[in-house]
Amino acid sequence: MRSQFFGNIDQGQQLPGHFALQNSKMLRVHLNGDVLARQGSMVAFQGQMEFDYEGAGGIGKFMKKALTGEGVPLMRVKGQGLLFVANDADDIHLFYLENEGITVNGKNILAYDSHLQSDIQRVQGAGIAAGGLFNTTLQGTGWVALTTHGTPVMLDCGRAPTFADGQSAVAWSTSLQVGVNRTFKASALIGRGSGEAMQLAYQGQGFVLIQASEGPTVAPHTH
């Protein structure tokens, strides 16, 4: 596994490159150039920086984002100094890609190196059967910072066939084969939804990052 997982690093510990965990809830970027980050995620900075809206990157990506609802609103931060970003006090986990790719749920993206290539793609093997599941792919060499709702686990799919709830799977290696596993008998026991239970199935050499939640719940209306 060439992707490096930095989810359990001591507070303030410096990592190779310019991404570091200030603590488990806050990312520190040593900026000397530019970086892409979730809009509104800046909580503080030291130095000289400019913040600009980052578009979809061409009409093709714009249409994919509009049609699928996948992706994350981004800002491009330029300058020099220390940039601190966070999102709703979610846990933050770092990956360093080395000429490789990961598939990410767009809502879990916090920041990534601007030179990484991004695209929106249908999840392999989970198209119509999964209701049209789309994710964001990031490829190249550089840093990626993701957020999770609760402390996650990273599973090595090379050890055994791996299955995950589609709402709990945050990211996985693009080298994995992905399919859909449907369970009728366990529909009332697996996941938070109702009816037929469906899990994503992973095989091959690579990892899957699973968060300790299916996402925040929406409180019922009282009026």
Structural topology:
Elements: E1 4-5, E2 19-23, E3 26-38, E4 42-54, H1 59-68, E5 74-85, E6 91-104, E7 109-113, E8 117-122, E9 134-148, E10 153-156, E11 162-165, E12 169-173, E13 177-183, E14 197-203, E15 207-210
Antiparallel strand pairs: 1-6, 2-3, 3-5, 3-7, 4-5, 6-9, 6-12, 7-9, 8-9, 10-15, 11-14, 12-15, 13-14
Protein name: AIM24 family protein
Pfam family, one: AIM24
InterPro entries: AIM24, AIM24_sf, Trp_RNA-bd_attenuator-like_dom
Q: What does this entry show, briefly?
A:
This protein has 223 residues and is mostly beta strands. Helix content is 4%, strand content 52%.
Structure characterization notes:
- The structure is a single chain.
- With 223 residues, the protein is mostly beta strands.
- It has one domain: Mitochondrial biogenesis AIM24 (Double-stranded beta-helix, 4-Layer Sandwich).
- Helices cover 4% and strands 52% of the residues.
- It has 1 helix and 15 strands.
- Strands 1, 2, 3, 4, 5, 6, 7, 8, 9, 10, 12 and 15 form a 12-stranded antiparallel beta sheet that branches.
- The longest helix is centred in the first third of the chain and has 10 residues.
- The N terminus and C terminus are likely disordered.
- InterPro entries: AIM24 (IPR002838), AIM24_sf (IPR036983), Trp_RNA-bd_attenuator-like_dom (IPR016031).
